[in-house]
Design a protein that fits this description.
Length: about 800
């Protein structure tokens, strides 16, 4: 069955009433250039900022005065059960978009009016045709639909019965007109009682199918489709056409060929077309591949980038001079093959040639005595310091620090002409100013390896936050060299940066009691929807009966409940939860005695620091339920002897995947990755997407409801204003303000992430334990290295300030 299409009225006599705004005069046209539509009569959108707009906000396609494939798709989508708004956004996404480039309904356009207008225009064009089949199709479109059933469950049940009956019918046994009567006879013969409303629903569904078939038939004749020889100026906006014309691309055939040859980044070879508009054009060409041909995406230019492999070994210095070898039978020595040697100027740390005068062996701020690093010059000291991170297997930290250090070193040699150990406060301030406006000679966007001569330290200008980070890394390095007795001072310590005073943590991003109640209610409703019997409550007599597979939605709901409870009651970081295993869980000790219903979990946090978090009996029960779901799912898919099932029972990751593992081409091969705890555990990315999707989907659903209500109230308010109904106008304005306030709540909830739950846990710990001991306890439970970080949570949020203010002269003076 189908949902109700957009409401539109048809006069009793069967004639079509068309909207007044568009001119529906149908002119017999050839296959030449279509006419562009007249200026819209809808209200103008608010003016944007002056100056040239951002590329993806500019129109990509022309608005034609012809019935296009998108028009027919929009009408067909509504017939097939999509709401008018969803159908509009799906099929006109390339044409209408907001200031951020996202598909949106244009300002002042009424979607239902658009549907009425197109349906009427299609009917009128078919009626004016001399083709009798088109006229019959138009008559089918003009047939009014019966009202849809109000009860969706009854409609779904009737649809299932109808589908089973229809699929077993011999082909062409009944005509479309005979189907409702034949189905009614089937219901009577099988003693299936249905109401009159349900009987009408069958007729309605059959009529919708007829309308869709008629629309498809009309589309083949009436839809104006792009041809390969059509000029780009017909279909594409003026700015896009001009950019393509400058590249000598004049028709759609040339455009398809050019994109096929140029590859995934074809737009980079054409000015004034960015990646967003390029994707719109590709999507539109794909929709019309039947007439324009398909884009060939099999060439090398369409292959995704492979990771670049550098020949440089981290911190291993390239030789200063090339190695020469005598060729066989020759007395002349030549360079042996391709060799990497040090070079002056801009080069990565491993290849950077440092002049003797600037190597720091006689630096101004060098310690004259021995140093703990055993370094004789700046390069040796830097390599030894960076090497400590490689030794500790902190690869990401090493790469980030090496990047900032080699940038600073290049600046010292090329710009300041100073050794690292001779850098003064004045030099440090000079580097600070340099980062605010990096010269073009130090910037390159080319995707090359580190040893490539085109390599540059920066990819573009950096913002204040990254400037502050760069200075901080150099400060940390200088401090380490100072403590190792290599330097006598740290010039970076005297710098003041505007960006460094920004808050490092926004602790206001936490859930309040209303948010927690909302999440709890969602979980209860979801659990009720996918509820299933508890295996522990099954009768002993049924032990030999094979248990049914747990519904995947129900298992996902129980896993989601587990994740939420773990994060809210332990304050664990996302990475910590992804690597948590109940192998590391043991009964907790309370007052020297073991507590049977509470557990302590060992986790490894930031900086490889180990701490214990407490697992309550409720959370432990949720873990067991989730693990039963995982074991049942694996056993039903792969059998009780599955290596993955055995690995899961050994490793026991706290949160595991529920879907099956990728199938191996070699059925007999044993995949090591498929039988390890990490392969069975839900990854950090999986955890984030699970929670983010849950929060965002449910919040945006409410936000759409509010926006629809607001749009309706705004229309009523406008009517009241035109009728000078002051009291009604003020009442509607108050209701709109209330909806705006509620919308802010749902917009905030759509931004919830996993770290909001950690902040919520921290604030709850400090609320229950408001003294100094509570602060220390919170530091240990959160795994903060510094108690100052934990202290940020003690700052009062806005709600606490308001409540405190109520107690100060509550009645005034």
């Amino acid at each position: 069955m189908h949902d109700e299409p957009a409401e539109h009225s048809t006069p009793p006599n069967g004639t079509v009433m068309l909207p007044e705004a568009p001119d529906l005069t149908v002119i017999k046209r050839g296959r030449g250039r279509p006419r562009k539509s007249a200026a819209p009569t809808t209200p103008k959108a608010p003016a944007g900022p002056p100056g040239r707009p951002v590329g993806f906000r500019v129109a990509t396609f022309n608005t034609l005065n012809e019935l296009t494939l998108e028009d027919f798709s929009f009408v067909r989508g509504v017939f097939n059960g999509l709401s008018a708004q969803d159908s509009f956004l799906r099929f006109y996404a390339n044409i209408h978009f907001d200031q951020r480039g996202n598909p949106v309904i244009p300002h002042g356009l009424t979607i239902n009016a658009r549907f009425d207008y197109l349906e009427g225009r299609i009917q009128q064009a078919a009626n004016l045709s001399e083709d009798k089949s088109l006229q019959r199709a138009a008559k089918v479109l003009n047939t009014p639909l019966p009202s849809a059933m109000a009860d969706k469950d009854e409609r779904d049940n009737l649809e299932a019965i109808y589908q089973r009956w229809y699929e077993n019918l011999p082909e062409d046994q009944f005509t479309e007109k005979e189907l409702p009567e034949a189905f009614q006879a089937y219901l009577v013969d099988n003693d299936i009682k249905v109401s009159v409303e349900q009987t009408q629903e069958v007729s309605r569904s059959t009529l919708i199918d007829s309308k869709v078939k008629a629309l498809n038939e009309l589309q083949t004749v009436l839809a104006y489709l792009p041809r390969p020889d059509a000029k780009t100026s017909i279909w594409l906006a003026a700015s896009v056409h001009k950019a393509l014309a400058d590249a000598n691309i004049l028709d759609l055939r040339q455009l398809v060929r050019f994109i096929s040859f140029a590859g995934r980044n074809w737009y980079r070879q054409i000015g004034r077309i960015g990646p967003v508009r390029a994707k719109r054009i590709e999507a539109w060409l794909g929709d019309h591949a039947a007439t324009l041909g398909h884009i060939n995406r099999s060439g090398a230019a369409w292959r995704p980038y492979k990771p670049l492999k550098t020949a440089l070994v981290p911190l291993e210095r390239a030789p200063e001079i090339a190695k020469l070898e005598y060729a066989e039978g020759s007395k002349v020595a030549a360079v042996a093959g391709e060799q990497l040697i040090q070079r002056e100027g801009i080069a990565p740390l491993e290849m950077l040639r440092v002049p003797v005068a600037l190597d720091g062996s006689k630096g101004m701020f060098r310690n004259t005595g021995p140093n703990h690093w055993g370094a004789h010059n700046d390069m040796e000291a830097i390599r030894l310091w960076l090497g400590t991170y490689l030794t500790a297997k902190k690869k990401r930290t090493f790469e980030a620090y090496r990047r900032e250090v080699e940038r600073f070193y290049v600046w010292c040699l090329c710009e300041a002409q100073v050794a690292i150990s001779s850098v003064s406060v004045a030099h440090a301030m000079g580097y600070q100013l340099f980062l605010r406006a990096i010269p073009a000679a130090y910037i390159s966007t080319a995707r090359v390896t580190r040893e490539d001569p085109r390599w540059r330290p920066w990819r573009g200008q950096i913002d204040q936050r990254n400037q502050a980070y760069a200075l901080t890394v150099i400060k940390v390095m200088m401090e380490a060299l100072l403590k190792g007795a290599y330097l006598t001072g740290n010039p970076m310590a005297s710098l003041k940066s505007e960006a460094t005073v920004e808050r490092s943590m926004d602790t206001s991003r936490s859930l309040n009691q209303s948010d927690v109640d909302w999440v709890r209610d969602l979980l209860v409703r979801s659990a009720a929807r996918y509820s299933q019997p508890d295996p522990d409550e099954a009768d002993d007599e049924d032990d030999d009966i094979e248990a049914p597979s747990p519904a995947l939605p129900g298992a996902r709901t129980r896993r989601l409940k587990l994740i939420l409870n773990v994060l809210l009651t332990t304050g664990m970081r996302l990475e910590e939860l992804a690597h948590a295993s109940i192998k590391h869980m043991q009964p907790a000790e309370v007052d020297g005695e073991t507590s049977p219903n509470e557990f302590s979990l060992r986790v490894v946090g930031k900086g490889k620091k180990v701490r214990s978090v407490q697992i309550s009996s409720t959370v432990y029960q949720l873990i067991n339920e989730h693990h039963r779901d995982v074991e049942t799912a694996i056993a039903l898919r792969e059998g009780e002897a599955s290596p993955r099932l055995l690995a899961f029972r050994i490793e026991r990751p706290m949160v595991a995947v529920l879907e099956s593992a990728p199938a191996s081409k070699d059925k007999t091969a044993k995949s090591t990755q498929a039988t390890t705890g990490r392969a069975l555990a839900l990854s950090t990315q999986g955890l984030y997407k699970t929670l983010k999707g849950f929060f965002k989907t449910n919040a945006l659903r409410e936000l759409r409801r509010i926006r629809a209500s607001r749009q309706m109230l705004a229309a009523r308010q406008a009517t009241a204003g035109q009728a000078s109904l002051a009291e009604e106008f003020a009442k509607l304005a108050s209701e709109i303000r209330a909806l705006d306030t509620e919308a802010k709540v749902w917009l905030r909830r759509s931004k919830f992430t996993t770290h909001w739950l950690r902040h919520t846990f921290a604030k709850e710990v400090l609320r229950v334990n408001p003294n100094d001991a509570g602060l220390k306890m919170a530091q240990e439970m959160l795994g903060h290295a510094s108690i100052a970080t934990t202290g940020i949570y003690l700052k009062q949020d806005e709600s606490a300030k308001v409540k405190a203010a109520r107690l100060i002269f509550p009645t005034g003076i």
